[in-house]
Amino acid sequence: MTEGRIIKAVSGFYDVKHEDEIYRCRGRGLFRKKNITPLVGDFVEFDKSTQGEGFILSVKPRKNALTRPSVANIDQAIIVTSAVQPDFNPLLLDRFLVLIESKDIHPVIFMTKQDLLSEQDHEKWLNRQYMYEAIGYPVERVSAAHGKDSIQRLEKYFKDRVSVISGQSGVGKSSLLNVLNPSLDLQTNAISTSLGRGKHTTRHVALVEAGGGLVADTPGFSALDLSGIDAGDLGDCFPEIREHLIGCKFRSCYHYKEPGCAVKQAVENGEITEQRYAHYIRFLDEINSRKPRY
């Protein structure tokens, strides 16, 4: 029996890396009966049946897991959002951040295509950067033309970590990975001018080497389902709201219409931005309006 890590999953086959060797494996038939689905990033025990092939026997416990994209044991999430083409969407960025926070994964924000901004828009983007940095998120503004200094600046986020890189289609996720590891030669597509979004260029989930670490290159998507988050836990997914929870009059406060709410007071005081609070309320309404499952 050998231990390894799944670095790629395609059509029921799993590429498992052990030391410097990669084995193409299938899962045990027992997994289906027990409703166990191995994920990219999983540490597994497997049996080497023949040269370069094997069977996965067991999946080790996970420290975390995402369902979209399907990847496990992630150290951090690089959330990529663009200034233009497609245009910046603050609601979508906050939706990504909420999902990542709900999984106890450390988020980092990359704001791409900064060189395509007009001079008058740069100050607006600096303010956006400062807003998220004040919350506690690392933020990097990235241009399309990556010089040596730019590459070194980005590599520090990836070194010795396992990262998931996610964001709306067309924001430049594959381009970033190509810069960090040119041998990947990942496909990139132009933005559709009619739809304002990129085509899906990544068809499967895989861990690839980039910047001295491993990165999950995942299919792009433009919406996130909050079905795994309860209304009472949503405030914990906003760090600036989380800081004020203890000051609320009621333990079960949803920070909406309740009296004595420290969060609403913090919004009035400017400690929490009105935009982020509005997104919190929108997500709260979405969670409360979903149909109960039986």
Automatic annotation (TrEMBL):
One of several proteins that assist in the late maturation steps of the functional core of the 30S ribosomal subunit. Helps release RbfA from mature subunits. May play a role in the assembly of ribosomal proteins into the subunit. Circularly permuted GTPase that catalyzes slow GTP hydrolysis, GTPase activity is stimulated by the 30S ribosomal subunit. Its EC number is 3.6.1.-. It comes from the Bacteria. It holds the Pfam family RsgA_N. Its main location: cytoplasm. Zn(2+) binds at residues 248, 253, 255, 261. Belongs to the TRAFAC class YlqF/YawG GTPase family. RsgA subfamily. Binds 1 zinc ion per subunit. Keywords: Cytoplasm, GTP-binding, Hydrolase, Metal-binding, Nucleotide-binding, Ribosome biogenesis, RNA-binding, rRNA-binding, Zinc. Its cofactor is Zn(2+). GTP binds at residues 112-115, 167-175. The gene is rsgA. Monomer. Associates with 30S ribosomal subunit, binds 16S rRNA. Residues 72-222 form the EngC GTPase domain. It is an enzyme of class 3 (hydrolase). InterPro entries: G_CP_dom (IPR030378), NA-bd_OB-fold (IPR012340), P-loop_NTPase (IPR027417), Ribosome_biogen_GTPase_RsgA (IPR004881), RsgA_GTPase_dom (IPR010914), RsgA_N (IPR031944). It is found in: Cytoplasm. This is Small ribosomal subunit biogenesis GTPase RsgA. Residues 63-224 form the CP-type G domain.
